Amino acid sequence: MNYKKRRHYWDTIWMLAKTDLKMRYQGSWLGAVWVFLKPFCLFLVLNFVFSNLFFKDNPHYTIRLLVGLILWSFFSEATTVGMNSLLSKANILKKIYIPLWLIIISSTIHSALAFFFNLVILFIFLFAYNVFPGILQLSVFLIYVILIYGISLTYSFFAAPLYVRFRDLNQIWEVLLGVLFYASPIIYPITAVPPHVQTLLYLNPMTLLIEHSKVVLIDHGFARFDHLLIFIGILIPVFFGSLWFLKKSTKNLIESI
């Protein structure tokens, strides 16, 4: 792919992402403030309940909860909008040719922007609680964030074309997100469950990424890198498999929208 073509693709992605952002909050009084408000309100409620009733003695529980919620919000939002992206852009796809992967990426860019806005809140809390991760810890945390985005894109490449044909997928994924939320160490520490249950929880990819993010940001430690390498080794072929699936699904897909 030459430079001009790459530049054209990125310009198109950014244009569609900005359009999504404007349309999403059009007519809303608070507008983009909802990017902060939704996860922060959930955080306030959960923190009030669990920090006072169940995890009083857990060090930095408030920060651990916030890290988990922000990462989960990123994953949940990106997978949902990615799955809906082709249907939501049906009017564009029927008029002009745009690669389907480009449509999906442009839709998830909004979730990435919302995530980086929420990071501002997280770092304010980190400093307020005298938690200062170093450059190395922040670099490793960035790797975890990239992996979450990679998982979200992988799911979206599989789910977006399927959702065009099977509209029940939206409801199924909503239920699964609820299950995965409680199967991730967000409102509870992973150590609060028995070892055999921990093994089951690690079948959920978000468990590893959320737990490792807490360790690196709050405890200034590093979880086992062999687990991370295995995770990346699995994600890369699955990601390219999802791209292949999306390409194979392109035939006759526009007519189904």
Describe the structure.
- This protein is an all-alpha fold.
- It has one domain (3-256).
- It has 11 helices and no strands.
- The chain has helices at 3-24, 34-53, 61-88, 90-93, 100-128, 135-165, 169-182, 195-201, 205-218, 225-249, 253-256.
- The longest helix is centred in the middle third of the chain and has 31 residues, at 135-165.
- It is globular and about 60 Å long.
The largest sheet, given as strand count, sense and whether it forms a barrel, is: none
Average residue pLDDT: 83
Given the helix and strand composition, which structural class is it? mainly alpha
Sequence stretches where pLDDT stays below 50 over 5 or more residues: none
Radius of gyration: 19 Å
Number of helices: 11
Give the distance, in angstroms, between the N- and C-terminal Cα atoms: 29 Å
How many DSSP-defined strands?
0
The figure for the number of domains is 1
Q: Could you say which overall geometry the principal axes of the C-alpha atoms support?
A: globular
